[in-house]
User: Which sequence fits this backbone?
């Protein structure tokens, strides 16, 4: 009882306090106003701007009412009494709401109090839903329990609405309580969507635009934002790069990967333009950059909008590949809301490829040695592993990858943010910590991000917005760049000689050996791997003998990368009071980024076998100690210091106009934009050091950084200093018109200047126009097609351009170089010369990309089925083209080169279809979404003669062809004994040679690749069909008895193009929800992985993929399924060239990610003072449903030669709101 009294007293006190405070406020606020026969609504607007009051009234009551008021520093009551003195209107003040009503009508109407609860379809209360008496401004919002209460007329109709839900109307009638359940608006037609330099309602969008919400990204356990975009938007393609911690190598492109962007010598890319809060993101080369986009944490993002068509023309030259707009989170008015999000994840390799081990490797090795003539015969045990050694190999298991510590790694993300504010000011602040642990060695990545923003209405007409954001990244790795030997399946050396070398190291090979020192005492040494049994080891950086991961790691070698960036954005908006709808806005953005990389490789000592070993001494433990040597390997001793800084500034001034006149709505924007960029970088490298300089890093002042000659070890060829600056000036604008929200028309333009061109060609003009028509709102349409619930037709055209060329190409340039001999007195001596660069082309200018798009947005079956279809056609003309110099008749002269010209046209086109079905079964809501696209291209105009007299397999273009080229390769001859193309016996070889001779013209030469004698062919090689002869006057002749690269290629597939279907599944029941993303693809070509071994710098016989266990061997496996890999070293391309022998199915279907979440009931968490708690379990890079690789030797994510495997991640997350 006492507690009830206390509560009653508190409530009474609060009520009295609020009443006193409200009365005090209305009396304390003073207004100055002067009107002469002005509309009453104008007076209301003036009062609202000078105070926190809001007016509520029925439109018909105040229509055509004009008032005259002259007051200076008068109270609200004084002004309203004066204004309404000679009218039929009265007012009442309730809190900070002022109700204006017709006293005559009110006297005739009965007011009644209505209460109720607003919930969603699942029965959860909706907080902040709008409840308005239709036709008036009398309204309220629901409280934390979804409840509302308001006074309305007895004949009123209530309108219930909330963002993301369909508006619902309910007549009051005789009811005193009205409860409603709002349905989710699957089309979200009234949702505001971010577009270029502005926003508009989804319903009024006229371009091909898609939006991703923050909720769709927040659960995914990804290390960079681009990875989270996979499968989210139709036409947005993400190709994943390395999963190595700290790398952001993903490639993102919209609709098509435009290969013609690289036709200029100076390149270009297919990367879309990234815009973060209206600030464009460019790299130091002036091209679009994903760097800052990938540093964003998903928790910072409010929405991501993808502009696929002419909508991107507002960004002009930089948006020829489309645009991705990021809107970060801003403050929301209300009490402070604190949110915490945590993800605790474990990641590991999807799988490691299967490799041959033990005796299986030994038998493969023997067959390889026989096939490559490294062994004279099967009794050549000086080269081959003996039966005893093969048996012993099964007892040895030196797993180098396991020894290096490959393990599941812990990954965590913690985000804390707060938002809140009042009518005058809102704020947002948040910070995130991301930590990706090491799977291998000390490789790890940490990232810190922060963002804070505030929006303040300084006066009734002036609004200030400011944001400060930044991030810091720390990446640590072992330094392995110095190795120059070829890894498994790679054509050259790599900077990362860790994972692949460890995984493909034969497991009979130990990483260390015990040898007696000079005193006869046993000492452990790291071992340089034995590459093979048939050649003497070479102890230099080109061979794996001089490498050992553990020695390198223990030496202290490292690679550290530190990145830091911050940006500050500020904008000031002035709403012009004397012109309704007009506003002026100025923005300034400044960003700074820096990156520092330090790499060090220190000397280490190794033991290695000094020469070839005889029979039965091929396993390390059988080799006498006297056959080992020890040496300090210091040729890779390197110090490298790299740092770069960049600063970017962007300034905009906008004039905006937004006004509605009855059913006519018009909005306009005009802006001038200035962009400046500055950068400098320094790369300093010291190589081939004379001493161990590790003491330098211990702070004890090591020896000087010198080479063996005592002079500086500075590697001048790799020491570079760069500095640059660039700028641009742009004029842009947009005008949009809408009638009755049914007919939409929009015009955009942008004019960019690029100083890469001559002054007369600086400027490029990039306009665009689009229109929309909501056909389903026409009365004739509703009568004719009542089942068509919604139909909008969209059409757009826009022009963008590119400037893929370096500065000053329009002027002759020279450089000084030490090249050639001098004349005169110094004749015959090397001298400095002046070398001309590319011949200038003053007429080079912007290339042009015209984008056409036709789209349809539809909805059927009471909103359950929605479909979006887009057809696009892009014309890319006046392409900056380097191949003009390659056409026949162009002279080649010493010292210079031919400059690019604007020539060529390539058209790209395609269609995109998105289907979504949303329905409910009992209390279970579910949805299914599918995205599918088709695309193509056609070369309409190109440099003539580039394909003249070239084989059909040439990659050069010509008019009429597609840029999606066929895949070419050999087709195997099936006349062999097993009918599979493998030459297994001498009889196979004889019959195959006879086949070739049957096509050899009289006096001609029969030939198999580079061999002209049948005796050069060996069992285990592949036999290829003779498909054609030489080119004569542009025509390929018939078969000629020769197998020649390119000449005898056939089409393995018509177009190297992949088709994709992305499927999204979701279901929810009460607080439980599940979602999945499934990717399906097919088309193009897919080959089994192949690797050559035994050539220059590749004498290491790595442990190959497990399917090579069934390799042909003339004695022990004559029916082997695969050709003998050793024959490849005898005749290049005789075993592993691209051919139909190696082709497998291209079909793939896999679950990209899966998420299960549960929202705790409010009654559970209310005692903990929490407003919401949600738990989720999410997996990323999940399971393939089909694997065509033989014996599943590898997964579908990674080639077996990958330098780092794709990681599968499982994350347990929690989101808490206070």
Assistant:
């Amino acid at each position: 009882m006492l507690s009830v009294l206390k509560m009653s007293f508190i409530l009474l006190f609060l009520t009295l306090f609020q009443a006193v405070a409200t009365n005090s406020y209305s009396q304390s606020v003073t207004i100055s106003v002067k009107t002469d026969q002005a509309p009453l609504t104008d007076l209301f607007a003036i009062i609202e701007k000078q105070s926190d009051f809001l007016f509520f009234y029925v439109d018909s009551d105040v229509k055509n009412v004009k008032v005259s008021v002259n007051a200076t520093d008068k109270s609200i009551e004084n002004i309203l009494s004066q204004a309404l003195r000679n009218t039929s209107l009265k007012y009442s003040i309730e809190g900070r709401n002022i109700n204006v009503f017709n006293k005559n009508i009110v006297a005739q109407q009965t007011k009644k109090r209505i209460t109720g609860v607003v919930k969603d379809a699942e029965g959860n209360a909706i907080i902040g839903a709008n409840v308005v008496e239709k036709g008036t401004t009398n309204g309220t919002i629901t409280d934390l329990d979804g409840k509302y209460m308001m006074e309305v007329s007895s004949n009123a109709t209530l309108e219930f609405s909330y963002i993301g839900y369909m508006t619902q109307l309910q007549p009051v009638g005789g009811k005193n309580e009205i409860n409603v359940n709002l349905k989710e608006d699957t089309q979200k037609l009234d949702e505001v969507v971010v577009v270029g330099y502005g926003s508009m309602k989804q319903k009024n969008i006229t371009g091909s635009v898609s939006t991703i919400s923050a909720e769709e990204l927040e659960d995914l356990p990804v290390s960079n934002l681009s990875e989270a975009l996979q499968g989210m938007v139709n036409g947005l393609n993400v190709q994943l790069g390395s999963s190595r911690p700290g790398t952001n190598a993903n490639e993102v492109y919209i609709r098509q990967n435009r290969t013609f962007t690289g036709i200029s010598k100076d390149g270009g890319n297919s990367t879309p333009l990234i815009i973060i809060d209206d600030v464009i993101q460019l790299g130091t080369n002036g091209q679009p950059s994903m760097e800052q986009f990938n540093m964003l944490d998903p928790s910072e993002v409010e929405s991501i909008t993808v502009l696929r068509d002419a909508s991107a023309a507002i960004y002009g030259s930089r948006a020829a590949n489309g645009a991705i707009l990021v809107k970060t989170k801003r403050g929301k008015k209300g009490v402070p809301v604190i949110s915490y999000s945590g993800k605790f994840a474990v990641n590991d390799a999807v799988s490691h490829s299967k490799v041959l081990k033990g005796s299986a490797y030994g038998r493969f090795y023997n067959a390889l040695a026989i096939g490559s003539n490294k062994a004279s015969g099967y009794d050549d045990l000086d080269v081959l592993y003996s039966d005893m050694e093969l048996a012993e190999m099964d007892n040895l298991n030196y797993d180098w990858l396991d020894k290096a510590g490959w393990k599941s790694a812990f990954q965590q993300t913690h985000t804390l943010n707060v938002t809140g504010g009042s009518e005058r000011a809102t704020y947002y602040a948040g910070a995130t910590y991301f930590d990706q642990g090491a799977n291998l060695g000390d490789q790890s990545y940490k990232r810190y991000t922060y963002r804070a923003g505030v929006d303040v209405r300084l006066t009734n007409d002036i609004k200030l917005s400011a944001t400060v954001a930044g991030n810091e990244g720390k990446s640590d790795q072992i330094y392995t760049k110095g190795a120059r030997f070829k890894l498994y399946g790679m054509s050259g050396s790599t900077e990362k000689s860790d994972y692949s070398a460890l995984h493909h190291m034969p497991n009979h090979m130990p990483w260390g050996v015990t040898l007696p020192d000079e005193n006869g005492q046993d000492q452990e040494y790291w071992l340089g791997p034995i590459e093979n049994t048939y050649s003497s080891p070479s102890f230099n950086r080109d061979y794996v003998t001089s490498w050992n991961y553990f020695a390198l790691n223990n030496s202290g070698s490292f690679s550290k990368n530190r990145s830091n960036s911050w940006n500050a954005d500020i904008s000031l908006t002035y709403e012009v009071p004397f012109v309704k709808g007009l506003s002026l806005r100025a923005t300034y953005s400044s960003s700074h980024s820096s990156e520092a990389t330090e790499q060090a490789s220190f000397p280490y000592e190794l033991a290695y076998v000094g020469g070839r070993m005889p029979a039965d001494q091929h396993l390390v433990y059988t080799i006498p100690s006297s056959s080992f040597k020890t040496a300090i390997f210091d040729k890779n001793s390197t110090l490298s210091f790299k740092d770069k800084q960049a600063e970017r500034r962007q300034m905009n001034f906008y004039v905006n106009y937004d006004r509605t006149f009855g059913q006519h709505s018009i909005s306009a924007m005009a802006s001038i934009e200035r962009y400046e960029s500055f950068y400098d970088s320094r790369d300093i490298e010291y190589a081939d050091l004379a001493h161990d300089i590790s003491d330098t890093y211990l702070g004890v002042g090591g020896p000087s950084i010198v080479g063996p000659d005592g002079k500086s070890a500075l590697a001048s060829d790799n020491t570079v200093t760069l500095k640059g600056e660039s700028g641009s000036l742009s004029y842009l604008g947009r005008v949009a018109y809408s009638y009755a929200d049914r007919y939409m028309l929009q015009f955009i333009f942008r004019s960019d200047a690029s100083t890469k061109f001559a002054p007369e060609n600086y400027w490029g003009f990039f306009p665009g126009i689009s229109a929309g028509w909501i056909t389903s709102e026409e009365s004739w349409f509703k009568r004719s097609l009542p089942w068509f619930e919604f139909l909008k037709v969209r059409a757009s055209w826009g022009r963008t351009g590119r400037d893929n060329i370096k500065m000053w190409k329009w002027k002759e340039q020279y450089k000084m170089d030490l090249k050639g001999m001098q004349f005169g007195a110094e004749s015959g001596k090397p001298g400095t010369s002046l070398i001309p660069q590319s011949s200038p082309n003053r007429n080079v200018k912007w290339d042009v990309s015209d984008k056409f798009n036709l789209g349809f947005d539809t909805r059927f079956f009471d909103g359950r089925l929605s479909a979006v279809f887009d057809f696009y056609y892009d014309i890319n003309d006046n392409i900056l083209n380097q191949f003009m110099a390659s056409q026949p008749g162009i002279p080649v002269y010493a010292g210079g080169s031919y400059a690019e010209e604007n020539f060529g046209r390539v058209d790209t086109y395609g269609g995109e279809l998105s289907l979504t079905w949303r329905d409910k079964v009992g209390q279970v809501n579910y949805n299914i979404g599918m995205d599918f696209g088709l695309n193509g291209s056609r070369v309409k105009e190109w440099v003539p003669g580039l394909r003249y007299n070239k084989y059909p397999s040439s990659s050069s273009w010509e008019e009429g062809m597609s840029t999606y080229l066929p895949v070419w390769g050999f087709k195997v001859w099936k006349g062999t004994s097993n009918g599979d193309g493998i030459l297994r016996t001498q009889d196979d070889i004889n019959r195959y040679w006879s086949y070739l001779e049957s096509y050899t013209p009289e006096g001609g030469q029969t030939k198999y690749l580079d061999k002209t004698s049948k005796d050069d062919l060996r069992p285990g090689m592949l036999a290829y069909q003779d498909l054609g002869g030489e080119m004569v006057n542009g025509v390929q002749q018939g078969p000629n008895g020769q197998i020649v690269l390119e000449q005898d290629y056939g089409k393995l597939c018509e177009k190297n193009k992949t088709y994709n279907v992305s499927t999204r599944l979701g279901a929810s029941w009460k607080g439980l929800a599940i979602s999945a993303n499934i990717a399906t693809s097919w088309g193009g070509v897919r080959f089994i992985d192949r690797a050559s071994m035994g050539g220059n710098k590749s004498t290491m016989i790595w442990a190959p993929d497990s399917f090579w266990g069934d390799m042909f061997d003339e004695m022990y496996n004559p029916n082997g399924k695969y050709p003998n890999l050793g024959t490849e070293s005898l005749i290049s391309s005789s075993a592993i060239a691209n051919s139909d022998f190696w082709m497998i199915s291209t079909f793939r279907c896999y679950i990209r990610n899966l998420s299960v979440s549960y929202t705790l009931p409010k009654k559970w968490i209310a005692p903990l003072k929490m407003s919401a708690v949600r738990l989720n379990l999410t997996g990323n890079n999940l399971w393939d449903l089909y694997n065509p690789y033989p014996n599943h030797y590898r997964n579908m994510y990674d080639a077996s030669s990958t330098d780092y495997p794709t990681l599968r991640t499982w994350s347990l997350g929690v989101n808490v709101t206070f």
Summary: The longest helix spans residues 2-28. The chain is about 10% helix and 40% strand. The mean pLDDT is 85.
